[in-house]
């Protein structure tokens, strides 16, 4: 019996200290817990670190507690913990992260092997965790658009993604984007189920 489970991890900088667009994944994950009717987030120790977790029957939602650019080792540890407890053939890893190339709140399911395009959080995860070791487990990324400034130079982009988030931006990320993330998770499961059940 195919019984799919998902480890969904948001990347960003720790909240509430860094309430910026760069932490869009965290805001979206917070809203996703409500859409999926998950238990509220509570503090737990996973991957040898305290983090916020919402653990439901199908989805385990985890907010990475590390700075964005060094999130890989934490993600690798929690994945390995879950893969020991659950048959990897019924476990999927989904990373939720910010995306400069999409307008605010636009959600896209992205293949795992797609280039990180300069996203240091994704680079860190891919460096720490190889999907090749878990060929039965679908790995995927869900990118949440944050828009981008007109100027493309690194300093302007950095200032844009790290500036304090506005109330309206937060509302889009917490209330609008999660509906689409939930739909992408269903799409991913349908695709996975079709491959697992000939």
Automatic annotation (TrEMBL):
Enzyme superclass (EC): hydrolase
Family classification: Belongs to the PTH family.
Keyword Electron transport: no
SUPFAM superfamilies in the record: Peptidyl-tRNA hydrolase-like (SSF53178)
Molecular function as annotated in GO: peptidyl-tRNA hydrolase activity; tRNA binding
Entry EC number(s): 3.1.1.29
Record's protein name: peptidyl-tRNA hydrolase
Keyword Hydrolase: yes
InterPro entries in the cross-refs: Pept_tRNA_hydro, Pept_tRNA_hydro_CS, Pept_tRNA_hydro_sf
UniProt KW keywords: Hydrolase, RNA-binding, tRNA-binding
């Amino acid at each position: 019996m195919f019984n799919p489970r998902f480890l969904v991890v948001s990347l960003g900088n720790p909240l509430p200290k860094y309430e910026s667009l760069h932490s869009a994944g965290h805001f979206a994950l917070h809203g996703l817990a409500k859409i999926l009717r998950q238990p509220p987030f509570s503090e737990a120790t996973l991957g040898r670190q305290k983090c916020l977790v919402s653990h439901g029957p199908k989805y385990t939602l985890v907010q990475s507690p590390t700075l964005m650019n060094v999130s890989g080792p934490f993600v690798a540890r929690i994945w390995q913990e879950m893969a020991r407890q659950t048959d990897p053939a019924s476990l999927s890893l989904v990373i939720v992260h910010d995306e400069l190339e999409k307008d605010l709140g636009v959600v896209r399911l992205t293949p795992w092997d797609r280039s990180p395009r300069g996203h240091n959080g994704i680079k860190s995860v891919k460096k720490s965790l190889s999907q090749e070791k878990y060929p039965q487990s679908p790995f995927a990324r869900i990118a949440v658009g944050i828009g981008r400034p007109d100027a493309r130079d690194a300093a302007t982009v950095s200032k844009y993604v790290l500036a304090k988030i506005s109330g309206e931006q937060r509302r889009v990320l917490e209330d609008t984007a999660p509906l689409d993330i939930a739909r992408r998770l269903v799409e991913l499961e349908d695709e996975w189920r079709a491959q697992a059940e000939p």
